[in-house]
Amino acid sequence: MASDWKTVPIGELCIGIYDGPHATPNKTSSGPIFLGISNLSGGRIDLSNAEYLSEENFFKWTRRITPRARGNAP
Predict the structure, then answer these.
(1) How far from each other are the two terminal CA atoms of the chain, in whole angstroms?
(2) Cα angle at 3 between 38 and 53, to 5 degrees?
(3) pLDDT, tens digit, for every residue of 13-54?
(4) What is the pTM of this model?
C-alpha cells in the first residue's frame, strides 16, 4: 500500500538519472514504466498516472544505458 512506503532520496534508489532523446515514444497499456516530467510533483515521483512502453520501445529508448538494480553497479 502506498501509505506504507518510506520516503528516501532518489540516489538511494538508482545509480543514475539519464536524459532521453527529447521525443516521446508510443505508449502501451502495460510493460516497463515510462517516467516523464509529468511524473514529478513536489519533488517526488508520482506514479498515479503512470504510462508504459512496449518491451521493444524500452530497448530502443534505453540502448545508450543499461538499466540494472542498484546493488549491481559495475
Answers:
(1) 32
(2) 35
(3) 776 777 666 777 889 999 988 888 888 888 888 989 889 999
(4) 0.54
